Amino acid sequence: MSNSYNHGGNVFTVARTLGVSPEQMLDFSASINPLGMSPLVRKTLINSLDSLVHYPDISHKELKQSLANHHGLSSTNFTIANGSTELIYNLPAMLSGNKALIISPSFSEYVGALNQCNWQVEHFVLAPESDFSIDIAKLERALAGGVNALFLCNPGNPSGTLYKQSVIESICRLCQSAGTFLVLDEAFMDFCEEASAKQIIVQSDNAVILRSMTKFFGIPGLRLGYAICNDRLAERLDSMGGPWSVNTLALVAGEAALHDAAHNKKTVEYIQQQRKTLIERLDRLSPLKLYPSSANYLLIEIMNGQTSREIKEQLLGHRIMIRDCANFTGLTDRFFRIAVRTSKENTLLIENLGRILK
Ligand SMILES: Cc1ncc(COP(=O)(O)O)c(C=O)c1O
């Protein structure tokens, strides 16, 4: 795994550098459920401590069954992992070929994982001016060059763009006829579940969905994710990596999280409402351009000549972290991303941003 840390959410290191505790930081750089983990997950974790005397259950049977019930699929359509990052790192060794295309800007770990297995990586760069829309004819031409794997994130990160099922279906068909394996990263799809391509992907021999349980369920420190795919691929993915990478507490937390329907509904509604208010208030800060987002984060372009680095550093002075997007392929040093957090936290961010922006 790449140790050069180039994502958001680096709260421990940042707090250490500033000489404060992580609790004193306000982290808008990682896009995690601002309501935190569900009370049922917390209770389950505390009640499960005694089971740590055993090795974890490597069959992941109960969590797979809970996921099957939750998604209306079969338990054989799932592979459980130590965060979806583990799947990203296991995939290149399982796939044949060595040429990958990444629909960018996107999550940097795809490149890290592919580089470790000596894949050649190219980017299919989407333009901010077109709101990161995908030109299907152009993508078809790019795949015709002999691409073994295509990586696409839906909703896009950092753009927040949600691609419709019809677009994903077209991309699936293109991949099928070009002999390209499709890796569809739905890490943030719990925030807009109706758009998931799960029913299409489980029919394919040539595609996998990656899902994260760390963001929506608020447990990034516990690490949990899964793949949705057909049963043959799920079996192969299950055999990748070492045993026990998913610990007992993550397994029981995942099951409890899926069962807390009330907390999950509240999260979706809260994010929708806070995102709307945040957009309205940010829109009033004139030097900012906001990109349409269906996710729990917003991509913002600075239009007055200030750089994302300047804004990031000035906000750090107020113990507020944002994600400087200058190092994303396809973006510039004018872009940054913020998470949608609680009403009070969002107000603090806006007040400080208002003072910093010229
Ligand atoms: C698009 C995307 N995919 C996957 C991940 C990995 O998530 P995790 O390993 O916590 O499940 C992230 C984390 O930020 C992400 O942004």
Descriptive account of the structure:
With 358 residues, this protein is α/β, with parallel strands linked by helices. It folds into 2 domains: 11-37 and 262-356, Alpha-Beta Complex (Aspartate Aminotransferase, domain 1); 39-260, Aspartate Aminotransferase, domain 2 (3-Layer(aba) Sandwich), CATH 3.40.640. The protein contains 13 helices and 13 strands. It has helices at 11-18, 39-47, 61-71, 84-94, 109-116, 136-143, 165-178, 198-201, 231-238, 248-259, 261-283, 308-316, 343-356, and strands at 26-27, 78-81, 99-104, 120-125, 149-153, 181-185, 207-212, 225-228, 288-290, 297-302, 320-321, 323-324, 335-339. The strands form 3 sheets. It has a 7-stranded mixed β-sheet with strand order 2-8-7-6-5-3-4, sandwiched between helices. Helix 6 (136-143) runs parallel beside helix 7. The model has no long low-confidence stretch (mean pLDDT 96). Residues 7, 83-85, 107, 153, 157, 185, 187, 212, 214, 220, 225 line the site of pyridoxal-5'-phosphate.
